[in-house]
Design goal:
- With 284 residues, the protein is of the alpha/beta class.
- The protein folds into two domains: 120 residues, Rossmann fold; 138 residues, Glycogen Phosphorylase B (Rossmann fold), CATH 3.40.50.
- The protein has eleven helices and 13 strands.
- The strands form three sheets. Strands 10-9-8-11-12-13 form a six-stranded parallel beta sheet, sandwiched between helices.
- Helix 2 runs parallel beside helix 6 and helix 7 crosses helix 11.
- The N and C termini lie far apart (46 Å).
Length: 284
């Protein structure tokens, strides 16, 4: 069986898909279509060169993704029915469902949803996501036993204002991590690392602290004790497996996964003391 997998578009989702993709590779000849970071993230999953596929497993929940593989005989994806306008399914949801030959229901946690996609082909997703850095990966100069801080969303709904106070309260050395073009929020910092370089740096990290973003999922997949701040997101739905969650106040609308907030981002009012306590639990 030749399987074409359309990997998730975002790094955190991509990490959560690792067990499902590995299961698909064990089940058939797998080709993965992924964003630019996919080659490094999925480097340990056996794949074959692109060619005509018997089945497409569609991880992104978009019409575009489903449309791009419309010529594949069997097309498996999540068949969402919860997005409606006045009780009528949104046009994009209806079109996507029509493009799928096999539809699976969403699970509570995103990683389990991805496992269901693999199971629809007959494959099995085993264990939590794991990723292993290699000795020949690019070396990054960071102190051993440091605390990694990933402010990531310094503006917008997931922004947290306690990073500076947190860094000042820590007794271990601190390194700020940021993606390409992002403001690291402090110094010393490592910005725009490749997946292999980031993984190599994390080998020297004692605890990684982040909002619910891709780097948090990747750090946990690398085996690093990880603390995740949840404001508009929920640990039970998208939190990295095995991470220590810190959830802010719930004004009644969490999780919203929104890009804006009309009530002042109450959910991100997380005391620094709670984050320090979570770091202690993660490192115990």
């Amino acid at each position: 069986m030749r399987i074409l997998a359309l990997a998730p578009r975002h790094l955190g989702d991509g990490v959560m898909a690792l067990p499902a993709l590995a299961g698909l590779a064990r089940h058939g000849d797998l080709t993965i279509r992924a964003p630019s970071w996919g080659a490094a993230l999925y480097r340990d999953i056996p794949t074959v060169s692109p060619g005509p596929a018997d089945v497409a497993v569609i991880f992104p929940p978009s019409v575009r993704a489903a449309w791009s593989v419309r010529a594949v005989p069997r097309r498996i994806g999540v068949g969402r029915v919860d997005r409606t306008i006045r009780g009528v399914p949104r046009w994009d949801v209806a079109i996507r469902r029509a493009l799928l030959t096999d539809r699976v229901e969403e699970a509570t946690h995103q990683a389990e949803t991805y496992a269901r996609l693999a199971a629809a082909v007959g494959a099995t997703a085993i264990g939590p996501p794991t990723w292993t850095a290699r000795d020949d990966d690019p070396s990054v100069e960071v102190p051993g036993g440091h605390i990694g801080l990933n402010p990531a969303c310094q503006v917008g709904i997931r922004a947290w204002g306690g990073w500076g106070e947190l860094a000042a309260a820590l007794s271990l050395p601190v390194v700020y991590y940021a993606g390409p073009g992002e403001d690291p929020g402090g110094s010393p910092s490592r910005v725009g690392l490749s997946i292999p370089a980031f993984g190599r740096a994390l080998r020297r990290c004692a605890v990684f602290v982040s909002s619910d973003t891709g780097p948090a999922h990747f750090a946990r997949a690398c085996g690093v004790p990880t603390v995740v701040l949840h404001g508009p997101t929920a640990a039970a739905r998208t939190g990295p497996t095995g991470a220590v969650p810190v959830e802010g106040p719930d004004p009644g609308c969490r999780p919203c996964y929104g890009k804006a907030c009309g009530i002042g981002r109450i959910c991100m009012s997380i005391p620094v003391s709670e984050v320090l306590a979570a770091i202690a639990r993660a490192s115990a």
